[in-house]
Design a protein that fits this description.
With 377 residues, the chain is of the alpha+beta class. The chain has two domains: 89-171, Phosphorylase Kinase, domain 1 (2-Layer Sandwich), CATH 3.30.200; 178-375, Transferase(Phosphotransferase), domain 1, CATH 1.10.510. The protein has 15 helices and eleven strands. The protein has helices spanning 27-32, 60-65, 126-129, 134-145, 178-185, 190-209, 237-241, 245-251, 263-267, 275-290, 300-309, 315-318, 324-333, 345-355, 369-375, and strands at residues 2-4, 16-17, 47-49, 89-90, 93-101, 105-112, 117-124, 156-162, 165-171, 222-224, 230-232. The strands form three sheets. A six-stranded antiparallel β-sheet has the order 4-5-6-7-9-8. It has a three-stranded antiparallel β-sheet with strand order 2-1-3, with no helix packed on it. A hairpin with a 4-residue loop joins strand 6 and strand 7. The longest helix has 20 residues, at 190-209. It binds adenosine-5'-triphosphate (ATP) and magnesium ion. Residues 99-104, 107, 120, 122, 154, 170-173, 177, 216, 220-221, 223, 233-234 line the site of adenosine-5'-triphosphate (ATP).
Length: 377
């Protein structure tokens, strides 16, 4: 058996282990062979070859290989995959369970060791945290938000960074979100829906007066405490996250959630004012009353078009229990043109209170669905 091995240019003879005759090409002929002959890869490695009896070995092309440039250095071995480490602590906070995930990252239930209390810890996804300047802007906004103290706004405890993760610690709300209750119940009683809208409006009015626009008012961002207080979450985050169009479309932050976002926000997410929150709150209120958003379609484009048209079914015609006075209020929240909406949520609150529909407390907290179904339609 003959075994052919690659050999170096300086070899006076090919490194050929064979019992058969081999006649090297004369020097003159070798010199005529260009140095740039492409290397035939499979011949670069040792091959086993059993020549048929009497076969002439090493035809000219194989001799040329002797003059081929040396093979490029082998590519470096792939970097070892990053080792996954189970993360149990971030700063002062011990993670104990996952609460859910959203557009910016994951939310964990955690224990703040120094204070012996449970908190909710929002940990930004690496994608968000590595955006240039994002953490700095995030930090600035958090500092401003920390100044906002309101019973209907989720209280911020601290923002920090540990193990390369940026996190936000806030009060833990154990009563679920308005979104999760809507999923369970379909819709709310008129009194409960008005209670949610009122609490959210009070929180937003306070935020607006302090120069904040939420931009992502939706049922999932209205959380409920164990004692039934409705609190607005994620205030300011949407504003900080809004940097590039690419970022906006990737995360959905800044343009709000399509079902609840104002039409002008879908057109130009950067240039909106507090009236976009009034529109979104109108969508949430309508959904709480009827079980569905005012504008809906199978596709994102369909929703945008429906909002641009501005035509929706009145809440009263979807559910007879909804008083017409609330439809009048909703029409001023859901106006396509921001100039035709309430100028401020103070006006909305005045008219809502006048409608005498606001329940004193959320009736479904602590009740099962069947309890509630016997009370409401
Ligand atoms: N302070 C909190 N206490 C209890 N649960 C919370 C708290 N904050 C968020 N959650 C829960 O964690 C989950 C993820 O929240 P997150 O805010 O990340 O997503 P989202 O509200 O669905 O979307 P978005 O990123 O647009 O706000 C939700 O189920 C929410 O109810
Ligand atoms: Mg949220």
């Amino acid at each position: 058996m003959a075994v052919y091995k690659p050999f170096a240019k300086s070899d006076s003879k090919p490194d050929l282990e064979t019992t058969q005759d081999y006649t090297p090409l004369p020097e003159a002929k070798l010199g005529a062979v260009p140095d740039t002959i492409p290397v035939v890869e499979y011949l670069e490695t040792t091959v086993d070859y059993i020549p048929p009896a009497g076969a002439k070995l090493l035809p000219k092309t194989e001799v040329k290989l002797k003059l081929s440039p040396p093979p490029p250095p082998a590519s470096p071995p792939p970097a070892p995959a990053p080792k996954k480490v189970a993360l149990t602590h971030l700063g002062d906070f011990r993670l104990v369970g996952k609460l859910g995930a959203g557009g910016m990252g994951t939310v964990y239930k955690a224990v703040q060791d120094s204070k012996h209390r449970f908190v909710a810890l929002k940990v930004l996804s690496q994608e968000m945290a590595t955006k240039p300047g994002f953490v700095q802007r995030f930090d600035r906004e958090i500092r401003a938000m920390a100044k906002l103290e309101h019973p209907n706004i989720v209280h911020l405890i601290r923002a920090g960074e540990d193990h390369g993760f940026v996190y936000l610690a806030m009060e833990l709300l154990t009563g679920g979100s308005v979104g999760s209750w809507l999923e369970k119940l379909g819709h709310f009683s008129v009194e409960d829906a008005a209670h949610v809208a009122r609490a959210a409006a009070v929180a937003l009015l306070y935020a607006h007066e302090h120069g904040f626009v939420h931009r992502d008012v939706k049922p999932d961002n209205l959380l409920i405490s164990g004692d039934g207080t409705v609190k607005l979450a994620d205030l300011g985050l949407a504003k900080t996250a809004e940097d590039t169009l690419e970022g906006l479309t990737q995360t959905g932050i800044g343009i709000g959630t399509p079902l609840y976002a104002a039409p002008e926000q879908t057109r130009d997410a950067k240039n909106v004012d507090s009236r976009c929150d009034i529109y979104s709150l109108g969508c949430v209120f309508y959904r709480c009353l009827t079980g569905r958003p005012p504008f809906h379609a199978d596709s994102l484009l369909g929703i945008i078009k429906a909002k641009e048209k501005g035509v929706y079914e009145s809440a009263h015609s979807v559910r007879k229990k909804v008083p017409k006075s609330l439809d009048k209020i909703l029409s001023k929240m859901l106006a396509k043109n921001p100039d035709h909406r309430y100028a401020s949520l103070a006006e909305f609150l005045e008219e809502l209170d006048f409608s005498e529909t606001v329940g004193e407390r959320l009736s479904f907290m602590g009740e099962s669905k069947s309890d509630r179904e016997t009370k409401d339609d």
